[in-house]
C-alpha cells in the first residue's frame, strides 16, 4: 500500500554501524510511495557508501556543504525547504550532541537548523553512551524542542554489549513514519492508564504481589501517544522503559494506585485500568520483620479488601472519564466480562482468556474481545502493541459516536 505516497523524507545518516540498514530502510520507504533524499555525515560514508545510497534512493547523495556542483543543483536551503520530514537514522551520540547545541558544522546539521520540517531522531549507539548523562540530557533537549525520538530498542549490540541503543529496525521506522502521518483520532484528548502489579506489604521486607509484567498497559500508553493523546501512566513495580512521550507515575500498593488515580482521573477524558490490582492487602503491616518461630507450623495473615479502582472511577459523579476495564478469565469469558461491565458500571471491558498459552500475562502477544453495552469486537492474536492500537481505535470510535 502506498501509505507514504508523495511524502518527501530527508534521510540524514550519521556515522554508526546501523548505517548499513539505511539501504533497506530507503527501499521500504520508497516502496510505500515516499521520495527519499539522502544526506550523509563524513563518518557515515565509512559505514555505507554514497553510491549504494544513490542507487537505492534514485537521487544523488548530498554530503558536503561546500560542494559548488551540489549547491548549484539543489542548494542546502532549498533542500531544507523540500523535506516534509527529516529522519536522522542512525542518530549517533555525536550527531545528537551537535544538534542539541545548535551547531551547523556540516551539511546535515546545517539542514536541521535551516528547516522548519518536523524532525525524527532514531538514536543508535553503545548502551553506555546512550545511558551517559550528557546523551540523556541532549535527547531531552531535542524532545523539548518538539523533535520526535524514535527508539532506541534494547538488545544485543554490535560491540557485544546488551542494553538500550539499538537503532529501530527499518520496518519499525517505516511504521513510525506511517504513524506520523496517520490520522490522530485521540488528538486533544487525555488518557490515564494503570499498568503492572501492585505490592501489598506484609512487613518491611516482604510483600504479596502477582506476575503481571505491565507490558499491555505500557503498550496502551505508547499507542495512546502515537494516536495523539496526552498520556499519564500510573505504573506498579515493573522493569519496563517508559514509552517516549508518556508521563509516568510509579506506585507500589493498591492504596497508592487508588489515591493517584483518583487525583488524576477528573482531568482525563479516558481511563483504562489495565493494572492487576491486588484484591486484598494485609490488614496491618508489621513494623519489624516477622520472625519465624520453631513452634509455629502455620501462620495466618489477616487480609482486608482493597478499593476497586476502576469501579471508583466509573462511579464518579463529576468529570467522569470514559472508563475501560480489563478482565482476565479462564472460562466463560463473555459471561463474566459482561457481568463485570455492568457491575462495575464500565463503558467498555477488554476480556482475555488467560487459560490459553501464548497470550495474556507476561506474554508479548494478546487476543481480546471488547464488550460495551450495545456491542462487541474481537481482536485476534497479535502483538500487544497492535492490540493496544486496536483497543484505542475502538475507544476513539465509541467516544465519537
Ligand atoms: O474484578 P476483577 O479484578 O476481575 O476486575 C478486573 C478489572 O478491575 C481490571 O480492569 C483491574 O484493573 C480492575 N481492578 C481495580 N481495582 C481492584 C481490582 C481490579 O481497578 N482492586
Automatic annotation (TrEMBL):
Domain Flavoprotein: 7-179
Keywords: Decarboxylase, Flavoprotein, FMN, Ligase, Lyase, Magnesium, Metal-binding, Multifunctional enzyme
Membership in a protein family: In the N-terminal section; belongs to the HFCD (homo-oligomeric flavin containing Cys decarboxylase) superfamily.
Protein name per the record: Coenzyme A biosynthesis bifunctional protein CoaBC
E.C. number: 4.1.1.36, 6.3.2.5
Protein residues bound to CTP: 279, 289, 307-310, 326, 340, 344
Residues passing through the membrane, by range: none
